[in-house]
Amino acid sequence: MNREEIIKKINTFLIEEFEVDGSKITPDAPLKETLEMDSLDFVDLVVVIESNFGIKVKGEDFVGIVTFQDFYDFIINRVSN
Amino acid sequence: MNRVVITGIGIYSTIGKNLAEVKNSLYQGKSGICLDMERKQFGYRSGLTGKIERPMLKGMLDRRQRVCLPEQGEYAYMATVEALKYAKLEQDYIDQHEVGILYGNDSCAEPVIKAIDIIREKKDTTLVGSGSIFQSMDSTVSMNLSVIFKLKGINLTIAGACASGSHAIGLGYLLIKQGLQDIIICGGAQELSIYSMGSFDGLSAFSIRESEPTKASRPFDRDRDGLVPSGGGATVIIESYESAIKRGAPIIAEVIGYGFSSNGDHISVPNVEGPTRALVKSVKDAGIDLSEIGYINAHATSTPVGDGNEAQAITNVFGNHRPYVASTKSMTGHEMWMAGASEVVYSILMMQNNFIAPNINLENPDEHSAKLNIPTKVVQTGFDMFLSNSFGFGGTNSSLIIRKFK
To answer: Fewest Cβ atoms nearer than 10 Å: which of A31, A66, B1, B45?
Structure first.
């Protein structure tokens, strides 16, 4: 998968899982606030990443992630490795 | 001591998804039982089950609320929405007053099984998802509804086997009577998925009259061969008379007696003495004459021993008085943790509409049920007071007496 395909897949599962309007997802928008995520939602994010990309992340990994762009870069980096 | 009135009722069951549908089904003697071949293929001895549709809650509840809610929580939510509307209990009133919840539930099979399946497969607990633990606990219904409706009073699940729903109402009645709470959402909920009834089926306690599913649940009939599992959600909102008058609530009926007991006997086989004591206690608590009870909604589940024992208990207590006695389980199947609450709802619907639903499938009574006045067709008659029995595994017994409000 190339960068664009990964980003498209991420946006698809975020919209589906968190039932958010796709127009709100822009690279510079804040992930947590846009998706109205609380601590329990990060648990579900771990699950949905694993089922879509087969990679296992931990709650601690999200500490430095603020925007959607941060999130895309994190996933792309993990998928490449 | 406060008077305890019922100001709201709601139902989501195998014979109707709301009060109007259920009332019609009761009047027509309509069965909610079917044969589920998937259960047979899965390994069930009996494929018979109540049939119920999962409600579509997107649009009614947000994602977080839906993620934490298991099957029976969905049924309880639907029943509670209807009951709150009936009671004219709006969210801003609930926000400013202590409204409690005492709901009957005694199992959560599917969420636990699904979580363990994921852990076994993935060797990783962080992949079960955030909703799993909240769905898996027996207190899931009261837990979820108290969060959804922002309740601030008592917050508890009553686990008393097949008497759970009845005990929930009884215990709520005691709290309100003593002035410890003004309004309590009581009820009972029961999961019905293929994961939830396997162990019970393994006791060979279910009917295997699979050739005639709607005739399989036959309480009091000589040829009954076991119960039919069923489920759903039923809510009964109880309130102090003073609170109801103050907020202009509709008063549907009054709870006037609660009797409880334990058999101190076999874990699954009921006796006569324990239920008799609960019955007697409820009559004493109500301070009424036996002749005032026009209808008994029997626990009778269509099991060979249980129905006969209850018939004896009723005959022992009521003697020459012969109220109508019928089991709505003949139509719904055994709603288990929901039953005590749903059967109060069914009985109230009958009392409001001047009829007694038939005990369907009673073709030949046995020696004990022959002594009871059991209608096999709908009876058009008014009654002012009913008694509802619920008995459960471990010998837990509950009897409630409810009358028209005066």
So the answer is: B1
Give domain status of residue B400, yes or no.
no
CATH number of residue B95's parent domain = 3.40.47.10
Q: What is the pLDDT of residues B17-42, one digit of tens each?
A: 999 999 999 999 999 999 999 999 99
Domain ranges of chain A: 3-80
Residue B189's DSSP bridge partners are B233
State the pLDDT at residue B206.
98
In the residue annotation, B299 being an active-site residue is answered as yes
Instruction: Give how far A13 is from chain B: nearest CA, Å.
Output: 14
Chain B residues inside the 8 Å CB shell of A19: 58, 62-63
First to last CA, chain A: 13
Note down the domain range covering B188: 1-394
Model confidence at A81: pLDDT above 90? no
Q: To 5 degrees, how large is the angle CA B102–CA B108–CA B111?
A: 130
Domain assignment present for residue B183? The answer is: yes
Contact between chains at B126 and A41 (C-beta distance less than 8 A) = no
> Quick one: closest CA in B to A51, which residue?
B127
Domain A3-80, CATH:
1.10.1200.10
CA atoms within 13 A on the CB side of B52: 33
pLDDT at B406 over 90: no
Backbone angles phi, psi at B234, to 5 degrees: -140, 135
**ipTM score of complex:** 0.93
Number of folded domains that form chain B: 1
Cross-chain Cβ contact A47/B127 below 8 Å = yes
**pLDDT attached to residue A19:** 95
